What we know:
- By secondary structure, the chain is an alpha+beta fold.
- Helices cover about 50% and strands about 25% of the residues.
- It has 3 helices and 3 strands, in the order βααβαβ.
- Strands 2-1-3 form a 3-stranded antiparallel beta sheet, covered by helices on one side.
- Helix 1 packs across helix 2 (about 30-45) and helix 1 (about 15-25) runs antiparallel to helix 3 (about 55-65).
- The longest helix has 14 residues, at about 30-45.
- It is globular and about 30 Å long.
Amino acid sequence: xxxxxxxxxxxxxxxxxxxxxxxxxxxxxxxxxxxxxxxxxxxxxxxxxxxxxxxxxxxxxxxxxxxxxxxxxxxx
Length: 76
């Protein structure tokens, strides 16, 4: 089990692909995925989500970073 900590975003972040990434790979609803994006971008909150498989967590991490999201992997 792994956690991904979303810390912030870079100028030019691609929010719609990020929402889709959370929806498809993390299994979150579109509403929850958008809510996470809004909390990161609008409120500057640090958000953690739990992913059951380390391999999927690493994939989400890399893709999110490529989309302009500042994040890190927290392995338990």
